[in-house]
Amino acid sequence: MNLASIVGVVLHPIEEWYQSRYPSVVITLHQHGTNAMARIASFSKPVFVRAVTFELLLRGVEDEVKLNQMVAPHGQIDCPLTTKILRDLVLTADLAVSVTYRTPSGREAKSDAHIFNLVGSDGQIIKVKDSGNYLSIGKCPACGDETLFANDGVTSKRELEKRKKAFENDMRNSCPDHESARVKYWF
Ligand SMILES: [Zn+2]
C-alpha cells in the first residue's frame, strides 16, 4: 500500500460522509408549462455538473442528459425532462433524479437519487410532487412471490431501498400469507 492509497482509504469515507451531510448540489423538480424541470443548485461551492439522470421507477426507463456546465456558488442549472421520459409516462409514475458532478477537490461524485411523483400523459406533465406517490415491487425471500408496495412519502432511492428491505422482511415473516405485510405497506 502506498501513501496515496492509504490517504484515499481514509479520506474517501470522510468525504462521502461530509457530502451526505453537506451536499454540494441540491436537486429539485418544478412544473414548467407542460413539462417539468430539474433544478440543480449549488449553495456554497462551485460545482462542475457532468450529467443528469432521470429514471422512471417501476417502468425501469432511464435517460441521461449531458450538461458539462459549471454552477457557481448560489447558482443553478435547469434541465427539462426528456422526450423519452415524457413519452413513457402513463398517468402517474415516480421519478428518480440524480446528477454526476466534479467537486472542487477534483473528485467525481454522484448525488443521492431524489424521488418525485409525476402526474401526466400524452407527453405533458400536469402535476409534480416532492416525494414518491406510486408503487414498487417487493419479493418474498421465502417463496419468491412478488407484491406491490406503496412509495408514499419516500424522498430518495436510499429510503426506498430501506422500505423495500423492511417490506420483504415482513413478507418472509408472514409467509405464505402476505396479507398482513401488504396492509402495512399500503397507504
Ligand atoms: Zn412468501
Task: Report on this structure.
It contains 4 helices and 11 strands. The chain is an alpha+beta fold. It has 2 domains: 25-129, Immunoglobulins (Immunoglobulin-like, Sandwich); 135-184, no CATH class. The strands form 3 sheets. Strands 3, 4, 6, 7, 8 and 9 form a 6-stranded antiparallel beta sheet that branches. Strand 10 and strand 11 (146-150) form a beta hairpin. The protein is flat. The relative contact order is 0.14. Zinc ion binds at residues 140, 142-143, 145, 171, 175-176, 178.
Protein traits:
187 residues, 6-stranded antiparallel sheet, 3-stranded antiparallel sheet, 4 helices, 26% helix, 43% strand
List the helices and strands and how they pair.
Blueprint: H1 3-21, E1 25-32, E2 35-42, E3 47-56, E4 61-71, E5 76-80, H2 83-88, E6 91-102, E7 108-110, E8 114-121, E9 124-129, E10 135-139, E11 146-150, H3 157-174, H4 179-184
This protein binds zinc ion.
Number of H/I helices: 4
Shape: flat
Strand/helix succession: HEEEEEHEEEEEEHH
- Using the coordinates above, name the CATH class of the largest domain: Mainly Beta
Class by SSE composition? alpha+beta
CATH architecture of the largest domain: Sandwich
